[in-house]
Amino acid sequence: MTANAGAWGEDGKDYDGKDFRFFTDSVFEGPGVVGDNDLQVTQQVSPGSTVQIAAGKVVVTATQTGKFGKYQDWNDAPINSPSIAATSAGVFRKDRLIWRITNGVGAPEIVQGTASGTPAEPTIPGDNYEELALITLPPSTSNITNAMITDRRRKAYTTQGGRLWTPYTPAWTTTGTAATLGNGTLTGRYMKLGRQVTFGVFLTFGSSTNGGTGNYAFSLPFAAAAVFEQWVNAKIFSVSATDNWLGMGYIAAGSSTVVPYLPSSHTETGSAPLRNSSTGAVGESIPLQPGAYVLSSGANVWVGGTYESAA
Q1: Burial (0-12, 13-18, 19+ Cβ within 10 Å), 148
Q2: Three-state secondary structure readout of 217-261
């Protein structure tokens, strides 16, 4: 393989398939569908021996010998899959539906498994494909329904999305008297791949920072998915005790904030929302022991991890 004779984008230059594949490869680090609903597999309106494949775009790695980079293909309207063979009485079968690029043309393909009482997934032969769905057929079945379809699509991601952190400014809220940052610092950053968000928030108290009162919360870079609660990691550092307290960060279903939870004390195993008090008296703050928990200049709060976003 030699160096490219001309940079991509030169006027009057002809480009071949390899140039386009390298261009796609420079944009997309990871293969897969581009949009959340692209090439999604569902039953027909009247279930039959085919399934429907939604319109959309897909990035496919060129794995064939002598090929390099990634193909980008699209389907501008819903299409039907190839016909899926019926099963006989007493046996199940697992088939895999893929999107394969052959001689530069993309099309759906069924990789049929072996019928058995305990069927295994078939091995996909050949090159240049992305899997869309696994179809598990019960005995004596000729009509495919959604209950038999398992989504196997993965989401393509860009080189930037896979490698770079994006800074953001979190909002700091309390359930009591509002906190003021003063000469402290509050920073955040995130990295997003599809609906997977990895983030971190770091608050450092300065000499003029007022911690307010009540439970603390920090805004997320993206609202969380409304499917169930999610948990990440949290930590505070107390200057007065030169001590770190480890905890968790609570994200309610559909919430736009994360709430740090810390142990109630050195001796108790329970945890509660990180809470500041104006006096530091026992029972007013979390952790409960005033001598081991003072948010003074130099103290810090960190919360971060990975969660599923709503979009």
Answers
A1: buried
A2: EEECCCCECCCCCEEEEEEEEECCCCEEEEEEEEECCCCCEEEEE
Q: Where are the alpha helices (DSSP H) in 59-164?
A: 159-163
pLDDT tens, 65-95? 877 889 899 999 999 999 999 999 999 999 9
Which three-class secondary structure state does DSSP give residue 74? strand
Q: What is the CATH number of domain 165-308?
A: 2.60.90
Q: Residue 144: which pLDDT band, with cuts at 50, 70 and 90?
A: very high
* pTM (2 d.p.): 0.56
For the chain, domain boundaries: 17-159, 165-308
First-to-last alpha carbon distance for the chain, in angstroms, is 41
The correct answer on CATH 1.10.286 for the domain covering 17-159 is no
Interior CA angle at 283 toward 260 and 246, to 5°?
Answer: 30
